[in-house]
Amino acid sequence: MARKSVCILLLVCVLFSVSQAAQDKASTESGWINLFESETLDGWKASENEGTFTFRDGMLVVDGPRSHLFYVGPVENANFKNFEFKADIMTMPGSNSGMYFHTEYKQSGWPRKGYEIQVNNTHHDPKKTGGLYGIKDVFKSPVKDNEWFTQHIIVQGGEITVKVNGKTTITYNEPEKKRRGIGQKLTGGTLALQGHDPKSVVYYKNVMVKPLAPRSAGPIKVALLTGGHGFEQKPFYEIFDSFKGIEYTKVQLKDHSEIFEDISDWDYDVIVLYNMTQNISPKRRENFKKLLSRGIGIVALHHNMGAFQAWPEYRKIAGGKYYLKPAEESGVKRPGSTYKHGLDMKIHIADTSHPITRGMSDFVIHDEGYKLCGFEKDNHVLITTDHSASDKTIGWVRQFDMSGICGIMLGHDHYAYENKDFRRLISRAIKWTAGRLK
After folding, report:
1. I want to staple 383 with a disulfide (CB 3.0 to 4.6 A). Which of 28, 77, 273, 395 is the partner?
2. Are 28 and 206 in contact (CB under 8 A)?
3. Do 253 and 142 belong together in one domain?
């Protein structure tokens, strides 16, 4: 049996090496992050018997006394809340292992925090592969030893879903009241892999994680950013008070971009940017982009087009830029943008089929116009105007990484805030960027 297992393992290694480059490329493009990209244990910390985990021929080999390998690397600062976690796994006969999440490092013994998804096809423990250990168990393994299979865990909000080779084995909705089990609560935490006992030999490959946006149900949570430009506060916030199913938090930026300094406890579905602040450090830029890799929605309003002028990539994210002064970008000289108050602008619905503008008719709004702005060529334009004191493009959508982006150039003062069509655009933009409007 041992010789046969070795032969099978060698054959599988050859097959995997042929397709590895293509798999890694596809995973990167779809938002997946390889947690063993260097094929070393960098970014991981083993408990008690460290020698149980080694890397060989591109595979993580689990072979030795009980130990747990905890992720301590930089992705999400090792604090995952909503995510997908998957791995290609092969067990030898009689082996036992597990994939943990929302857990924390423990030097010895079994982890006391978080949940375990079982990896066990023929070990004497009756709880088998694909089950949520001790809570919603699977008692007949859906896969076999000596064969590679993919176990895929999805955690979003209070729901846990497990798939094995693409087929759902369990779905579990966590009750509001905490279970008796120690630490079994979706509170966030790191990931871990289990070495169960000296006779359990298990192989892991393509251990991947994909951070997700917070929710797919319940109220949409919005971070409403202001700062760097004055505005009429009472009528502005009344817009958001009027929305049903949308909860917003006022974020008055005092240090230009401090909300992006630490995103480990991020709990918003959408960011509405009504700020014109400027300074955003390299760390904050990277955190901003990490949120976009999770699919956090962005709605950029009016004078936000003038924000973060020294960050060239921000125009690519938001889709448009108001130039506060003449500039040169990629060898092209740009004049400073202009503005004019008190315009009666006829707004044309350029795309009547998009979810944000579907069913809307042309309307007139009394607002401030911007001209000589820059726009990304791949914007999908939703609304336009023919007013001579404004650029033609007024509203657009685009995709950046995993996030839906909506830019709306309108929104200077109470005349715009009170316009029912303007409010309708904002409400729908929030819902669309949150993935709730199809």
Report:
1. 395
2. no
3. no
**Averaged pLDDT, groups of 10, the chain, 438 residues long:** 46 44 45 90 96 95 98 92 95 98 96 96 98 96 98 90 96 73 75 97 97 79 97 98 97 98 89 98 96 92 98 97 94 95 98 96 98 97 98 97 94 98 98 91
Within this chain, do residues 89 and 200 fall inside the same structural domain, yes or no?
Answer: yes
Q: E-strand spans in 196-283?
A: 201-211, 220-226, 246-252, 270-273
Examine the domain organization and report whether 246 and 185 are in the same domain.
no
Q: How far is CA 270 from the centre of its chain?
A: 11
| Domain limits for position 63 | 31-211
CATH of the domain at 150: 2.60.120.560
Indicate the number of domains in the chain. 2
* 414 and 340 in a common domain: yes
DSSP code string of 173-189: E--SSPPSSTT-S---B
| CA pair distance 19, 76, nearest whole angstrom | 28
Specify whether the CB–CB gap between 77 and 104 falls below 8 A.
Answer: no
The DSSP code sequence of 57-113 is TTEEEEESSSEEEEE-SSGGGG-BSSEEEEEEEEE-TT--EEEEEEE---SSSS--S
Same domain, 274 and 386: yes
| Burial label, 197 (beta-carbon count in 10 A; 0-12, 13-18, 19+) | middle
Long-range contacts of 304-307 (CB under 8 A, 24+ apart): 304/273, 304/274, 304/275, 304/276, 305/370, 305/373, 305/407, 305/409, 306/229, 306/276, 306/337, 307/228, 307/273, 307/275, 307/276, 307/277, 307/278
Are 172 and 238 members of one domain? no
Picking from 162, 181, 211, the residue at the C-terminal end of a domain is 211
How many angstroms separate the CA atoms of 401 and 398, rounded?
Answer: 10
Place of tokens 């080779």: 165
Which of 325, 345, 324, 333 minimizes the C-alpha distance to 415? 345
Residues 256 and 29: their CA atoms lie apart, in Å, by: 31
Query: What spatial distance separates the first Cα and last Cα of the chain, rounded to whole Å?
Result: 54
Q: Which two tokens stand for residue 309?
A: 């002028």
In the chain, the amino acid numbered 403 is: S
Paired tokens of 170 = 């369990």
Residue 368 lies in a domain: yes
Report CA-CA distances (Å) from 264 to 269, 297, 405. Answer: 14, 17, 22
Nearest to 429 by CA among 277, 259, 306, 301: 301
Q: What's residue 232's pLDDT?
A: 98
Q: What is the pTM of this model?
A: 0.69
Please report the pLDDT score of residue 16 as a whole number: 42
